[in-house]
Amino acid sequence: MSLSHVRDLIRLHTPFSVPENLRIHTDTTQFMDIRAGDCIAVEGRLFYVKGEEFEGRFGLDGEPKFWVKRVVDLNDGSVKILKLAFLESFTMHLGEERIRCFRSPHKESRILERTAGDARFMQGITLYDEAHNPVRVIERIAGKTFYDMVHDLPMDHETYYYEVFPGLFTHLMKAFYAIKDLHQMGEIHGDIRNDHLIVEHNTGRYCWIDFDYTYEWPGQPYGVDLFGLGNILLFAAGKGFHTLHDLKSPRSPLHAALSTLREEDFSLFFPNRLMNLKKIFPYLRETLNKVLMHFAAGAEVFYESAHELMEDLEIAFRSFLWEVPHGP
């Protein structure tokens, strides 16, 4: 494809002026060098780079993810996300456990292939550049994160719990079943967070994104995913997280409950987060609180599979609604 034709495609499909020195990358190894206004050519496809996605992880908000590019597909003008190969690793601390976590672009590519057509998961394909780096071409989802959706609800907890949470719980059950199905394939999500669950604007459907993390936890192959689900359930049931720091504030309406709290009431994963929500919200159903307490520091038994978790969640769910939802 000639450079003049590429320039014509940029003018046709974007409102941006064409850079005088247009750069077309066929090797994405040095992704930091790929900037807005450049193009990426891979397996006969051509993408115009608009910029980078930004980190939503708490404490890193607003940090650009240089390996994740916002692009326009110059074939049809559609907006896509390109995830380029980026390798990193770190150690996660869970109680006394030390768990090695790392990025695996090939693992995400495999899950994209295995969940193709399943609307409960983000959709995309993998192409390979001239250096054989995997380039994941992701369909952009119009929606907001589960975190933002719940966080932005303008109501007190009791109103939320009785009027909003039962319907939200229905969608969460479907999303949790999706992870159970993923585990039954022998796969893991690897980074289950409140901002990795997207609520689509048009359909209200919940969709999991970002599968490139994996981990090594001998004897607990699904353990990190399960704690991630527990964390989302905690956030949903509590309409946010309730930390020891917040409860210690005399201005907190929940401050009076502070004297009743013990170390075993808090999360094993995040020791500052209260898991025993019934101590601050006495109207919380015992069946739901029981599930949360499996993730607390004082738990004697932890969930070892999504099947075990869903068995207890079904009991909790039936206390809100008559029917347990399955499937997408």
Write a short abstract of this structure.
By secondary structure, the chain is an alpha+beta fold. The chain contains nine helices and 13 strands. A seven-stranded mixed β-sheet has the order 1-2-3-4-5-9-8, covered by helices on one side.
What is the strand and helix layout of this fold?
Layout: H1 3-13, E1 24-25, E2 39-42, E3 45-54, E4 64-73, E5 79-83, E6 89-94, E7 97-103, H2 105-114, E8 124-128, E9 134-139, E10 143-145, H3 146-151, H4 157-163, H5 165-184, E11 197-200, E12 206-208, E13 213-216, H6 223-238, H7 244-248, H8 286-293, H9 306-318
Parallel strand pairs: 1-2
Antiparallel strand pairs: 2-3, 3-4, 4-5, 5-9, 6-7, 7-13, 8-9, 10-11, 11-12
Helix pairs in contact: 5-6, 5-9, 8-9
